[in-house]
């Protein structure tokens, strides 16, 4: 078990009455237990807590009147990751997958796996099915992209990234997801907190459905999969934006942190990690 | 109540063992009751029936060995549409919508509402909120597009359609969905059967969330919303393809039909119709 | 006649031997006479002066060794613009245009007039041919776009701009060019200096072929067409980048200026101005 | 010397007065001599012959009234190709190229070499400069694309082709051009006739500027570079469409032929061929 302290502080200048949809709180799943959780708003405000779907995604919704609004979240998260030998993790057959998993084979806004299927098949179609194939895709993405903040925007897609070869965590994730779907592996986007991420921020990574479980991968290699705390999952970043605003507000401050309680993460070389 | 006889026949030349995912059977919802339903396969085969999500979407999955496979579906559907005066149907506030509806505000594969938001806001942002605004968007789509089969492909998106100004039902739906989302109205894609559709085929139309209900619109104006039988709903056509194949098979035949039992549809001029 | 003092200073940190292609010097045309011209390099360097094509475009080419390189250009330009009553300027027939003009009807890198032809025809196809139609296109572009630096990149095209509705001078020009070509008017991109441009910079505007002449338009409305000094013309910005580098160099400074010698420009309300 | 008989017959149903721009006649260059040339129109009509630019491109322009119009072209072409040992052909330095060649380094409508530069550099940046590098790019294009008519349209670009991996001669050419420009080699599109092309049609291939000359390559490998007869050159297919119509006309027939007079082409294994 790994215990992780997470938190984030957001400050907004709200200029008009504005609807906030927040997705910053840790999900509760069989492998991720959240305790000592506080979410405070200054000034105080009525907040609606919503559960979305069945994967633990949560959402806070509120209408904020003009003011300077500080939002502070803190929690302790106990992770009991399932760890497997990568070589033991095979792929699932499309004829055997749970039906609700099939939706993660479909193309989505930022992951045009339909367009990239030929490319994916040509590059990765001949590899042995299993954990190693997803790892090979993530390695390819990691070695062919350069991590350069500011080179992509909120509308950049996996195809764009494949051609321009630069991006940030969200772009790495979108390209890896598209290539996995392109060879028939259901794959989804995970937003979360990552221990020791530099520079600190919310993180975006991926989860591939292999051998009946969802396994974590970080195509950026900026964080250990043993220190990833889930906020939510979706088809791509469109589903798990940390804050969606309807109205007018400017973000003045964003601080995000995640620390392992015992100062480090278990040292397991390249394990297959599942927490969903 | 309207009673509709629907059905379709598909014939495939299957060349290798192929996984079929079929989405051709009518959904069961509080307003759509399905009876006398038969789904036959010739040659006979084991088929898995799956329920997907909570909107009535169904899926049949089977692995077909090389053969010529005929799939015939027939059902009687009783529609008890809720009919409202359009002028009574207002828009819902994002602060009040059920959380599960919010996902239909997100951009999706073929509906880049993020890219089209400025266009949508400029053209339709000043219109009075409500049923009439969605109707205005559908009218705009209808009058600015030309219905020309063969001008779009499986990867054509709403942005493409907005520029090229031609397409088929799926393209009309994607553009209308994107523009609605662009002005803040949750909107989704509906696949189904349509009474008297010419030429007969599966149909694609849309549903906008207004005043606490999902209301039907057909941007192509090729069918009455009182004669639309739902197969499934999704973010866009990526979610409700009538047949997804993994393997190798060629479609040899497709016949689709939908007839109102009493020979016609209730004549209600431009009503607001809800069946979900 | 209008006399204009123009100039610009560029400073580069050159890190490796780098080939520079400069396009910053004023063109010489029958209506634009350049005098007192100096182009100085500090440190001094061998520079090759090239004439490109037959429209007055010039190019300086040099190989710069690692150093800090200052490039200063100054010139006096006498403009003898041809000024017409807009209402007297009709369109040319494609059957009558000089053959070398026809190339400016073709789509180009940033001006996908083939994709935008339907849109252009629908919006502007019914307007009376002539200067007024190009003016209407420029007005449409001006009123539908918002001038926001940083919202577009070097690969942004007219289609992107039409959808996202923001951009800078280059983007305004590309969209206006595409819409003009879309209704059959040869149109090209002009790079240059503009009197009183705020903030000062190189400017991008357009030239449409009407009634046997090239007429100037500035879709941004940031500068008077009577104070535009031509550097070069091309199909779009790809042809007239002010500096193309092969090697490694970073721009440290860019200053651009253009002043009318007698302090102002002739006050002619919305004239049709031709200098090519 | 190779003597080639070329020709083509086009038949149009002209429904309204229509402007035709034809680009089907062989260019005259120092290495391509055209004789016994006939271009006949049935019914007879006034045709304007235009020379475009300085590369031998020609254009016929005429206004056709409603009728059924047959256009027949025939000519004898003597090719005196310059043939080099590929290993003797190096690349030119951008600092040394003739200025008019530099324009073929710019991105163009269907060849977004700016977008593809990173990809090109990564795949081909480390290869030895020279004829062999262009050959390697053409080989890559040939082996990664599948020749499938009907999978691309008039607006398909090199980026699209790189992702979808299918296309026809024009698409092969656009991708090869973009990749060459991406590594700094001026490259252009050539339209023409090709001996023994199957199925017979106008052909699209490319020319790269190496060692002071333009060398021919056919990325489709459907024709020998020794049997290519040039119609025209341009930045991409946008510049050399065989027929551009303004008005309304439908093509009823297209026949194209090209035969080597002595029944075959000189057998030179993979030579470096220059005719411009």
From TrEMBL, chains A, B, C, D:
It comes from the Bacteria. InterPro entries: Bact_transglu_N_2, Papain-like_cys_pep_sf, Transglutaminase-like. SMART domains: TGc. Residues 161-221 form the Transglutaminase-like domain. This is Transglutaminase-like superfamily protein. It comes from Novipirellula aureliae.
């Amino acid at each position: 078990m790994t215990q992780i302290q997470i938190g984030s502080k957001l400050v907004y200048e709200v200029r008009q009455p504005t609807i906030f949809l927040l997705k910053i709180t840790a999900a509760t799943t069989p492998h991720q237990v959240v305790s000592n959780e506080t979410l405070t708003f200054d000034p105080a405000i009525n907040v609606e807590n919503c559960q979305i779907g069945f994967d633990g995604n949560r959402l806070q919704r509120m209408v904020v009147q003009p003011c300077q609004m500080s939002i502070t979240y803190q929690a302790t998260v106990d992770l009991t990751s399932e760890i497997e030998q990568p070589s033991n993790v095979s792929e699932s057959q499309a004829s055997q997958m749970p039906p609700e998993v099939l939706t993660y084979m479909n193309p989505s806004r930022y992951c045009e796996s339909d367009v990239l299927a030929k490319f994916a098949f040509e590059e990765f179609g001949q590899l042995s099915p299993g954990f190693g194939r997803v790892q090979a895709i993530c390695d390819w993405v990691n070695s062919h992209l350069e991590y350069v903040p500011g080179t992509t925007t909120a509308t950049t897609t996996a195809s764009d990234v494949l051609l321009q070869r630069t991006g940030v965590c969200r772009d790495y994730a979108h390209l890896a997801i598209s290539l996995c779907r392109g060879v028939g592996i259901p794959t989804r986007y995970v937003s979360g907190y990552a221990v020791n991420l530099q520079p600190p921020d919310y993180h975006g990574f991926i989860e591939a459905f292999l051998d009946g479980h969802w396994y974590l991968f970080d195509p950026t290699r900026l964080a250990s999969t043993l220190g990833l705390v889930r906020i939510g999952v979706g088809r791509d970043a469109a589903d798990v934006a940390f804050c969606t605003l309807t109205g007018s507000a400017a973000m003045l401050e964003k601080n995000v942190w995640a620390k392992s309680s015992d100062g480090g993460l278990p040292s397991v070389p390249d394990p297959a990690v599942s927490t969903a």
